[in-house]
Each structure stands twice: as structure tokens, then as C-alpha cells.
Amino acid sequence: MSSVNERITQEIQSIAASMLESGQVAAFLGYSQGTLPGTMQPFVARDVEDAKKFSWNSFCVINLANYLPALLRSLEPPRRRGEPPPEGPLPKVGVLATGCWSRNMVVQIQENQIERQRAVIVGISSRGMVSRRKLEAAVGYREITHIEEQDNSLLVRGDGFEETINRWDVVRDNCQTCVHPDPVIYDKLIGSLSGDRKIPDRFRQVEEIEALSVDDRWQWFQNEISSCIRCYACRNACPLCYCPTCFVDDSRPQWVGKSIDPVDTALFHILRAYHCAGRCTDCGSCESVCPMGIRMRLFTKKLQKDVLELYGFEPGLDPDAPLPLSTYKMDDPEEFILTHIKKGDKK
Ligand code: SF4
Ligand code: SF4
Ligand code: SF4
């Protein structure tokens, strides 16, 4: 009997092959095996032969929505800046989407980064992805040379050891606290939907930090980012970070220094987190790619909690719900901005 991942892999290969063969899509975005055990890489298939390379397991940790806008643009005929897009339908892309990835695609549609009709979304209800870091800790940081995944366990081998690890124990923190594992928008579904999960303490990690004094919170924040090498892998893996020039790369004006000076590093993390407020889906992509093990996802998780409490809003769940931080109403409760606008006052 085949495992869940083997069945999903077979379905992905067959759906992608059929979409590519029929010409429904010009490219299909999924995952293929990475070079090391326990790593997977985003992969674009452009023909039926390529589709055989697709694979699926618990190490598909990078949010595929991140690659969608550029892939769609790459299929458009070249045109000069400011020129309107050509008339007629443009080539489509097939793409896999779990719950959070699909929610990021909703945000991308709302922010005009992709056109819904050009993405053929193949939904997969997520069982949670594994944290490579947790797995390494579970085997005492010995070198892993082989991983075999079963439905609920991982057989891990290395030089002179073999251990069976319970899969859920090493699932990423964001996946363990995920309440929306099902894709929100999709054109085809692999397997079935599993429904929202009830997790009463989904913000437990944030609440533990909120309970600290202001000084201790600042200390916690500084400790957390102290090993940051400013490689920007977290920014590059995030589907929300599509600015043509990020504030950290700007030199006129230079908003933030390029060094790993603690003030510059803190500024980078605070600004990046705030740029994601009301948009972050807690996909965990940023944290999964950090080479230094920094838990920067907790910064955006705190803002996710605030946006939920202040606006009752969760990003990407409803394509018709406007994003709270880019929508303005005169009766918004923002006394700190709108003070005493009286009749007859100059606005
Ligand atoms: S950190 Fe901010 S400025 Fe930089 S790419 Fe992300 S959203 Fe854009
Ligand atoms: S900030 Fe991190 S968790 Fe949030 S959407 Fe971006 S990559 Fe995902
Ligand atoms: S990926 Fe990690 S080390 Fe790199 S900039 Fe982000 S937090 Fe810093």
C-alpha cells in the first residue's frame, strides 16, 4: 500500500502532465527532490517529461506563491516599461497550493501581483511540513544521510545510527498551530479537504513573550536577532516581499545601514515585520530558510495576533475582504491620527 505522499506525488505528476500536454498551462510549479536528504526544491516543469520529476513530502517548506508572479511575467511577450499588456489571453501556470500558500495567492490577487485567471491552482490540504532543525535536534545533531518518510514517522539514518522519529514531533511550529490547512482557492483538488482545526492556544508562543516586561521583551528581541548575518534569505523566501527595491537595498536615501550593527539589524527586522502586518499567512517560509535559526516568524505572528484582535481579520481567507492596513474609512478608530477635525477646519 502506497503512502499518502506517494499518492500525492503520483497525482501531481499526472495532473501536471495532462495540463502541460493539453496546453492548458505553459508551465507547472511544484517541487522536486533537493540535493540533500530532507530537502526539496521548487521546480518548474515545461513539458510532460519534466512532470515526472515532481515529488511531494513533508520537506516542501518554501511557499510556492513566492515564485508565481515572476513565472507568470516570464511567460508574457517582452514589452517596454509602461506599455500595456498585449490583447488576448496570456499563458497560464499550474501551481500547487496548501492552505497558507493559497492564502498568499489571494493576497497577491488583492495586491494586483497575479491575475486569478492565469493561475490554475491545484489544492492540497496540508498535513504540516517538517522542521529540518527540529529533526536535526531529535537525532542529536548527528549528520543525516538518509530519510525515509512514512505517513506518521520518519526513519532517519546516519553514520552508525538509525532512528524512527514521530512525524508530528518535528512538524514546524507554524504548522502545529495552523488552523486553516485547506486551500482557500483552487481549480483542482488532490485528496480531500480536512476542515479548519481548533487550536485554542495558537498564539501561545506570542503570549509568552507578551507576558514579559518591556525591558525583558527588548532583551528577548535583541537576543533572537543577535546572530542575524543580514543574508535576506527570509525576505527572499517571502511571497509578500516583491518590492522592486527593498528598503534595505536602497542607497538614495539609505534607510538602513548595510552592516550587522545591532541597530541596523533591529531596524531591518522591525520594518520587515511591519511591512507584512495584515498580509502574513504564517506560512513559515522565512523561518525555514534562515541559516542561523532565527525565529523571525514570531515577530509577524505577533502582528497577525494584533490584526486579528483589532480588525477581526485574517489575511487571504476571503478574496473579497479588503486588506485592513491598506483600506481607509473616515470612521476608523484612529484617534491618534484623526484628532479634532471639526466642521470648517482645513483638511
Ligand atoms: S522588507 Fe519591505 S521593502 Fe523589503 S521587499 Fe519586503 S515588503 Fe518590500
Ligand atoms: S513573513 Fe514569513 S510567515 Fe509571513 S508570509 Fe512571509 S514568509 Fe510566510
Ligand atoms: S534569513 Fe536569518 S540570517 Fe538571513 S537576514 Fe533573515 S534572519 Fe537574518
In terms of topology, how is this protein built?
Elements: H1 4-22, E1 27-33, E2 40-45, H2 48-51, H3 68-74, E3 93-97, H4 99-110, E4 119-124, H5 132-138, E5 144-149, E6 153-158, E7 161-166, H6 173-176, E8 188-190, H7 204-210, H8 214-225, H9 233-236, H10 262-275, H11 285-289, H12 297-311
Parallel strand pairs: 1-3, 3-4, 4-8
Antiparallel strand pairs: 1-2, 5-6, 6-7
One iron/sulfur cluster binds at residues 63, 104, 237-238, 240, 276, 280-286, 297, 300.
Keywords:
single chain, 347 residues, alpha/beta, 5-stranded mixed sheet, 8 strands, 32% helix, 13% strand, binds iron/sulfur cluster
Describe the structure.
The chain is α/β, with parallel strands linked by helices. The chain has a domain at 204-326. Helices cover 32% and strands 13% of the residues. It has helices at residues 4-22, 48-51, 68-74, 99-110, 132-138, 173-176, 204-210, 214-225, 233-236, 262-275, 285-289, 297-311, and strands at residues 27-33, 40-45, 93-97, 119-124, 144-149, 153-158, 161-166, 188-190. A five-stranded mixed sheet has the order 2-1-3-4-8, with helices on both faces. The chain is globular, with a radius of gyration of 22 Å. One iron/sulfur cluster is lined by residues 63, 104, 237-238, 240, 276, 280-286, 297, 300. Residues 235, 241, 243, 246-247, 272, 275 line the site of one iron/sulfur cluster.
